[in-house]
Design goal:
Blueprint: H1 8-13, H2 19-24, H3 42-59, H4 61-76, H5 86-122, H6 126-158, H7 167-184, H8 208-218, H9 221-249, H10 252-267, H11 270-295, H12 311-324, H13 327-340, H14 343-351, H15 356-384, H16 388-397, H17 405-415, H18 419-452
Helix pairs in contact: 3-4, 3-5, 4-5, 6-18, 8-18, 9-12, 9-13, 9-15, 10-13, 11-16, 12-16, 13-15, 15-18, 17-18
């Protein structure tokens, strides 16, 4: 069987350019043998490799370059069959080993600082805590009612078979009846092949979680959620910092004018902005189609024809929309940070002979980090939970692999009315997002400590 780019199966598969990365981040379903291996370690190896990239670059650049060249070849090569990722598995494993070392050292450092943090916490006066407690109780109460209770209820739903047919029983107390009975041991978890009454809610424990995680991994949705978050936020950061620096160098009135123009996309609701871009693309596609019939396919915007059939073009289209209404937030953080930097530091850098890049790298950027990094964290949370953009575009390209977990959770709830499945996705999404936010927060905290030190 041909495996070259001339094979018609390559064009028929229509796999995106990032497919090798998705394959590296999870086990290949066709090659998985549950009898030979108990745990799927491929995704864990990929995660540790991400943690070990910086350390590998510092200690062994040959391995880093080896892995980078393999990835570039896989991304450029048109054929995206799963077996081709074998060329990158060896350097990936070496980098993952460095990631394990880095993770181990981080855990050890955290464990050693626990006692110091406890001592600092004990230093706070008990009297001051009692005085502040009445002011904290209302906020804690609202936090418990509006945040903790819905999360617990979602988790309870995820341990049942709640669907559209059994929704009435669930709303009449079936969820709490089954969950409490299952926790108390009064209701046994039914066998996997048991015939259940779909009109009633049944307690199934944590059965839904391994099945849901396997499904999300097989359709590469977990990878795409992280891939989308990192890619879209990185572009927003680059454009936001660039726009902030340009406005900083612009005159007074023109700066305010351009700043107001740049802020407009951020002021527009996300649903309206997504619909706006969808209408623009549909209009451009129609104009390109009319022009292509008359003048040929080489006209401007002719490459946008059929964007919904090409996953690479779909990603570019959605990144354009996300970049449009995402970068103003970063720009505002950069503008506020630049106003707080004293002019003396730039004069000192100029006296020392620093050029523009050196001034930004060693003076401007370190002093901007305390304001920019929290803004990046906020944008990462919004990007991970991107909803309206995918809700508007998904009916056109119809590829569930290219959507976020929050959007797919609504898609499942609206289409299949599988409430338990949707609740399971929500809990998994919450865990993944919490880990991602915790990682970003620790990096932000390290950067801030370095700046203030």
């Amino acid at each position: 069987m041909q495996t070259t780019t001339t094979n018609p199966n390559v064009k028929r598969a229509n796999l995106p350019i990032w497919e090798p990365l998705a394959k590296l981040s999870s086990s290949v379903p066709e090659a998985w043998n549950e009898e030979g291996f108990i745990f799927r370690l491929d995704g864990l190896i990929f995660v540790f490799a991400m943690f070990g990239l910086a350390e590998t670059w510092r200690k062994n650049r040959f391995i880093f370059i080896w892995f980078a060249v393999d990835i570039l070849i896989l991304l450029a090569w048109q054929t995206k069959w799963a077996q081709y990722i074998l060329v990158a598995t060896v350097p990936l494993s070496f980098i993952a080993a460095e990631g394990i070392k880095v993770t181990g050292r981080s855990i050890a450092d955290w464990w050693q600082t626990r006692n110091r943090l406890r001592k600092d916490a004990v230093k706070s006066s008990t009297k001051e805590t009692r005085q502040a407690l009445p002011w904290l109780v209302p906020g804690l109460l609202f936090f418990f009612i509006l945040t903790i209770v819905p999360i617990v209820y979602q988790f309870a739903m995820s341990t049942t078979t709640l669907n559209g047919t059994s929704l009435r029983d669930g709303l009449q107390g079936g969820i709490m009846r089954e969950v409490l009975g299952g926790v108390n041991g009064q209701i046994a978890i039914p066998p996997e092949d048991a015939e259940l009454d779909r009109s009633k809610v049944h307690f199934v424990g944590l059965w839904n979680y391994p099945e849901t995680v396997n499904f999300l991994s097989e359709v590469e949705m977990i990878f795409f959620s992280y891939f989308w978050t990192i890619t879209s936020v990185a572009l927003q950061v680059v454009l936001g910092i660039g726009a902030g620096l340009l406005l900083w160098r612009t005159g007074g009135r023109m700066r305010k004018l351009w700043q107001a123009i740049f802020i407009l996309p951020w002021a527009i609701p996300e649903a309206v902005g997504a619909l706006l871009w969808l209408n623009i693309l549909c209009a451009v596609q129609r104009l390109a189609g009319i022009g292509g019939e008359k003048y040929g396919a080489e006209i401007p915007f002719g490459g946008m024809m059929g964007w919904e059939k090409d996953p690479n073009k779909v990603l570019i289209v959605m990144l354009m929309a996300a970049l449009w209404y995402g970068f103003p937030f970063i720009m505002l953080a950069v503008s506020a940070g630049l106003k707080m930097i004293p002019r003396d530091v730039f004069d000192a850098a100029a006296i020392d002979g620093a050029d523009s890049w050196q001034t930004f790298r060693y003076v401007t950027w370190p002093m901007l980090q305390p304001l920019v990094l929290p803004a990046v964290l906020v944008r990462a949370i919004f990007a991970f939970n991107q909803f309206y953009l995918f809700q508007m575009f998904l009916p056109y390209y119809q590829n569930i692999s290219m959507t976020t977990l929050s959007s797919f959770s609504y898609y499942v709830l609206y289409g299949g009315r599988e409430f338990a499945f949707s609740a399971t996705i929500n809990i998994i999404s919450l865990v993944l997002l919490s880990g991602f936010v915790l990682l970003l927060y620790r990096r932000n905290k390290t950067a801030e400590d370095a700046v203030y030190a």
